[in-house]
Amino acid sequence: MIRQAVGAIVYKDHQFLLVHKVKVGSEKIPGEWDFIKGGIEESDESPRHAMLRELKEETGSTDFFMVKEFEENICFEFPDKMKPKIGFERQETTMFLVEYTGDIEDLSPIDEEIAELQWLAKTEVLNKLTHDDTRSFFIKNLSSLSTK
Q: Which DSSP category does 102 fall into?
C-alpha cells in the first residue's frame, strides 16, 4: 500500500526552513533533518489543503504563500521493519514551493514530532538533509527555486 503525503520547500529571503523530526507517530527516532512533510489525511480536501495543515502543525503559523506545486514527487520505500508498524510499503510525496511571509521569530512547532526549526542557506541545506531522495530533489530543482 502507498502512503500519499505532502512536503514543502519553505523559503524566506534566500534561506530555507528545515525541521528536526524526533518522532514518527508515537515512535521516537534518532532524529532527522527534513523539509516539512506529512501524510494526507482523509479529512484533507486536497494535497494543497494537507500542505497548509502540515505547515500550521510543524511551524505554528499560517503565514505562507503557496508558490507552486512541483510536477515531480519524492517516492521511496519504507524500511522493512517500519512497514508493519505504519501499514504502508511506499510513500509518494507531492512537493510544494512555499514562501514564508511572516516573522521567522514567530515560528514554533505545535506537533511534538518536531524538536527544532532551522533556517539555512542552500549549501547548508544540502549538508543537513538526512534523506538522499530529498537532497536529490532539492538539487534537481535548485534552478527553479526563485527566492528573490
A: S
Measured in degrees and rounded to the nearest 5, phi and psi for residue 81 equal: -70, -20
Instruction: Note the pLDDT tens digit of each residue in 111-141.
Output: 888 999 999 999 899 999 999 999 999 999 8
The model's pTM: 0.90
Strands 36-39 and 64-77: unpaired
Q: Which residues of 38-54 are buried (b: 16+ CB within 10 A; e: fewer)?
A: bbbeeebeebeebbbbb
Cα 64 to Cα 93: distance, rounded to the nearest angstrom? 19
Please give the single-letter amino acid code of residue 135: R
Q: Is the pLDDT of residue 70 over 90?
A: yes
* Confidence tier at 142 by pLDDT (50, 70, 90): confident
- 100 exposed, middle or buried (CB, 10 Å; 0-12, 13-18, 19+)? buried
Q: Is the separation of the CB atoms in 6 and 50 below 8 Å?
A: yes
Q: Is the dihedral of CA 36, 70, 72, 141 positive or negative?
A: negative
User: The C-alpha cell of 126 is what?
Assistant: 544540502
